[in-house]
Structures
1.
Amino acid sequence: MKRQTYRIIVICLMVLAAAAFIYLVRSLLAPFVIAVLLAYLIYPLVRTLESRGVSRVNAILTVYAAGIILAGIFLLLVVPAMFNETRTFENILPVYSNAWMEAQSYLNRLSERVLLPSEGRQILLDMSMRIRSGLYERLRSFAEGLLGLIGLLPSFLLAPFIAYYMIKDFEHFKKRLLAMLPSESRSYLINFLLEADLIFSKFLRGHVLVSLIVGFLTGLGAALIGLQFYLLIGIFTALADLIPFFGPFIAAFPVVGLALVESRTKGILMLLVFLVVQQIEGSFLVPRLLGDRMGLHPLAVVLVLLVGGYYFGALGMIFAVPVTCLLRVGVQALWDRLIGLAS
């Protein structure tokens, strides 16, 4: 019993030391974080090839070769057009700003015709100014953020090499980790990891795929109606769709507003595109790619989204739900462990 207690204490100290080390070198961890995500995403593909008699190394290299081909197509066809749209978008923002001012003047004239009190007109004026400045800053930040991805290029280039060794020696790492734990604690850790894998597989392999399809369909719809910046619209919609509940509204409001600036017809058509894509997502994509919900009440989802957004911004809203589900599973596993020890 004393030996088991000693091992638990040592493991806890090692975890704390590892956490402190990670905090100290957090600015250097970008390639490792990207590598973990990459390894997690492609590991099922590697296992599928292994089940058909392909060796682990050849399976990894095959998946990498397919990924390089797809990345090459993306770099040659999509990235140049995307950055051209970003530069054009930054230059044309003042035009949209002037169009918004004209729309605001029209609303002021309309409020005078309906005999709206001066206080009401001032409230509408202040609200429209806040919306205009907020949209301008958000869209400008989004465009600058896309250009800022260039700074992560070294991390993206290094991540596949790190992910290769993570996948290649995964079983070795797993055995070493389990060997460090007391035998009676291994089943709890395995169950926890299985639940965590279920949660993040739904998010990374399911929700991300749904968001990519939604972004592609929205960008395609914007291109078909002749809207400018359809690539940026698709990317922005895909990123916003990662946020549960609020994502479609976050995407639709500025995009439809930009479409209305070009013409009223394009604005109405863009709104119809969003409505049709949301119907496809809710009726077809989510039931087939995500399945059941993650076990959180809708009110709890709204609460964790607000908390994540308040403390960590857009990334906090994106990862709030899976992290909360993971914490719930961890607390439940710890509680079951304590109950088991007490009994």
2.
Amino acid sequence: MLALVLVATQRGAESPLAMNDRGAESPAPHSGVARAFQARDQNTTLTAVEGLKVGHHTLAERPTGCTVILVDGDATGGVAQMGGAPGTRETDLLHPLNMVDKVNAIVLSGGSAFGLDAASGAVRWLDEHNIGWPTASGRVPIVPAAILFDLGVGGNSRVRPTADCGYKAAAAASITPVEEGSIGAGAGATVGKLGGQAEHDGYPAGSRKPMKAGVGSSSIALSNGLVVAALVAVNAVGDIVDPATGKIVAGVLNPDGTFADARKILRTGQTIRRPRPAENTTIGVVATNARLTKDQANRMALMANDGCARAIVPSHTLGDGDTIFALATGRWSGDVDVTTIGALAAEAMADAIVRAATRATSVAGITAARDLKK
């Protein structure tokens, strides 16, 4: 871990009214501006970055949904795509060689390629609010997006996020601490699939099983006012390993409920079925209140992938579509050191990935970390 003084790390509650990790009840919210400032002060999730809002929408018919990150105004955007099977929209636009350098929203969605339709709903919401890149014919919303594969979880695979899902998530977006777990884009997310195990009830007798993951978020604030944060939906082939301890948090399970440990599976040379392309993925966003150029935002996204490698074993496989976006809101006027910001982004990403596993709840008979015997 970095030898930096961290004023705040992600240890918050799932909602403004939840119990915090020390067992004390969080203060009741106030109204108006006072409530907004209180939310920022107590927030250790992505929305601790001034200028960002987050909203989820989860479908009732099957565990799937989408998550929308809205920018108040606009932000410089970047992206780093490290997996072998991505499903994305508007990522070429974020390349430093291309003209548009501002982003109005990011959409993360379940539903595989079908889920990219959720971005159209976020575009519609932004259009209704006259938000977007200015052109002679009106404002055009800039909304990059990425998806994960959850079609095999919890029932009818034809139930997937649509444009309506993206619209509702955008409409629900707020600056309050991000709700984590089996929600939004992480509603159907699973991990521990080394060998390509099925993701539904009715596993063959004696087969290994995956575990539930979801959405996690974390932020780091320095005493000089710099804030760097991450939000991630984890649907990886690999196991989730806490970098602080080296212990598995969630991953492939043996028939007796113990961890098979992807690291041991790989080192023993066992014959495993290769992960199927497009059926796994970790998608997320790192953000800062610093003012970055487009080049620097892309570097931040690239460095944030180090956090994926620290907390997911293995990561960036041929069967993963790992995609990390970066946003810089420019609300902080301090001196920018992109090396520090990128390194902190990796720290926040690793913390968020662990939380995506620890905050998840079981769905469709898939075990979550909180269900395991301690």
3.
Amino acid sequence: MDDKLKILVVDDEDSLRISLASILELEGYEVQTAEDGFKAIELAKKEDFDIMFSDIRMPGITGTETFKEIKKIKPDIVGVMMTAYALNDLITDALNSGAFTCLSKPFEIDTVLSTIKDITTRPFAVIIDKDANVNKNFLNSLKNCGLNVASSEIDSNKIEFLFKHKPNILIINTESDNNKILSILKKLRDLFGSIPQTILIGKDQNNMIMKAITGLGPVKFFNLPIKVSQIFDFLDPKDRKKNIAMVNTDSEDFEELNNSLKEKGFHLLSYSNCEKLIEELSNSFFDLALINVKIETNIVDFHEQLQKKIPNIGAIYILNDDQNLDAVKTKGCFYLTKPFEIDSVIKLINKILGK
């Protein structure tokens, strides 16, 4: 994204819309406002926005529907929803449609600024398919794992955003028009000096297109269905934050640690228990798991499942007492016992990750 972001603020509440826009302008951003979704859509047709902050509950058209319509016009816009109500269905719909997050009103301006920082420091991934019906679960999995994601049909009018912000990684379905694929990549090379890291996906590898693209830059082919882990294995580690799976760490005694890890630049994925983590492994990618061990947890069984799914994963077990000490020592696991020092946890994480 450009240094000076262009932000659209949409809210029917005058005081919030005006005050948020004013603060963002003081922070150096270029800001436009709209008091309803219809006006926001019209603005998006005329101007190029990077981020949209939108209230969900508005008269005429909801913020969720507004975001969906603007996403059709500008696939790479990042949507941040805002609400003072428990609108679970609308929030879920917005997030499933690619919205970045939902902020609960009232919120501190620091929350808004940290959200913008998180957006702008994430790698940008673009998926080009033969049609717009890209698997939403796959897109959301990439977003949850720390990427900004845009998807588009292979249409010259709909992919113009590609030539304004070079993506870190480009994923193209080879069932699309091969001549158009080559044309897109050549234009990216001419504009930016090189093509993004490019992944071709399909049922069978097309050797002709592979040979032509390999001459342009880094490219890899994966058979469908593609896994989230394959994207991250190909993505340059320097281009992304390290992902940490945080298991059973929603309690107050982990709040400071969670905040410290975010401040240190780690991307956290939260799981309520070990079983949830195992269930989500196929839809996620992380570099390390930190587990607050419950009394009933069978560490040996869990660690074996984890290692089977991700052989090189690092894991840190936070023990409540000495009950599971023999188990973690038997498996050669990293561990800390409560109470722990935050600095000790961060040093251990950096050691495991080789930082």
4.
Amino acid sequence: MRHNCLPFRRFRISTPPNLPNTRRRAFAGLLASLFAAATLIATPIAAQAAPLTKVRYTETIRSLMFTPTYVALSRGYFKDAGLDVQMNTAQGNDKTMSALLTGSTDIVLLGPEAVIYVANSESPQKPQIIASLVAHGGFLLVDRNVKATPATFKWDDLKGKTVMAYRPGSTPDVFLDTLLRRHHLAIGKDLKIVNNIGVTARMGAWIAGQADYGIFAEPEASTIERQGNGKVVASVGHEIGPVDYTIFAAMAPYIQKHPKVINAWYDAIARAEKEVAAESPQALAKEVAPFFPGLSQPDLVASLTRYRHYNIWKTTPTISKSAISAVQDMLIAEKLMKPDQRVSYDRVVAPELAKRSQ
């Protein structure tokens, strides 16, 4: 960029020789001040950095499943992309989607089934997926028997038992039910499911003795083990296989009005996902620690190590057509939607993300 200013010329400032010393010093100071001012005028002023765009962001729960997001926040990747992110935790997919539909938040993190449900609803405004975060379900099956081990666990062990699930229709609940069917276990006949306990009350209910088995995310699962209240015996998500478990979504009008924000969000998450895939649990624990103030570094490392073992996190925010189809297959099998309600990929995935995912 060219600047219209006079060429800089070197010259010497001379003080009149016949002035007294005090006046000579004052005159020299005046000339120096004038010279400095002239230099500032002649020097082009650097363009000020553009102000950050505020984004109201709501996550469904606080979990180490969402480590790439916390890394992006901790390392300033959103700010690098021009975003000032204000985070809130809603404690459940239903509350998270409600916040999005009512306009009290801009971008949410929740299960993809919520977007599909709204696509089939009478709501005039529809949310769309803008990025993907979790590759495998992050919920782990916990046995109340502290002597249990993954090596000795069999799914038939659930027969005659009570299992603490999650909210009906949520991704954790749907994934668990799908897995039970694969192992020929009938709910109500072979085992009992408890899924009417609030998100924030689940840990307390488990410690109080409710249920023989339960599904918990990290860091709750490791906390249960550390306190001697159970043992992790299986990963629900790992057994199901790779299906985009948790996604970011925004309302379609917001996506259309703020394409730069959507692209910046994708870029910040993509940057974080790559680093999470490459870095050690020890390094990641330092980054996520501010978001889990009650946990020690060794506790965080243990939880992150387990998730790394199960390949929980995505390495790119793209989402495939097969992933959207697989989620709907499970919803139909659970009778949470009818076969003729299947929605197309383009209806639930934002256009820009669809292009990136090709």
